[in-house]
Amino acid sequence: MMNKDIRHTVKDPYAIDKESFEPAYLQLANILRRQISEGEFRPGDLIPSEAQLVRRFGISPMTVRRSINLLLDEGVVSTEQGKGTFVRPLELSAASFDLRELQDLIANGTAGDIKLLDVRVVSADEKTARKLQVAQGVPTIYIRRLFFQNREPIFYHRAYLVYDPSRPIVEAEMDVTSLKGLFTHSDSTLLKRGHLTIESALMNSEEAELLKTCLPAAAFYLEHLFYDFNNRPVSWGWFIFRNDRLHFTTEVGIQI
Question: Smallest Cα–Cα separation from 246: which of 98, 96, 113, 112?
Answer without folding.
Answer: 98
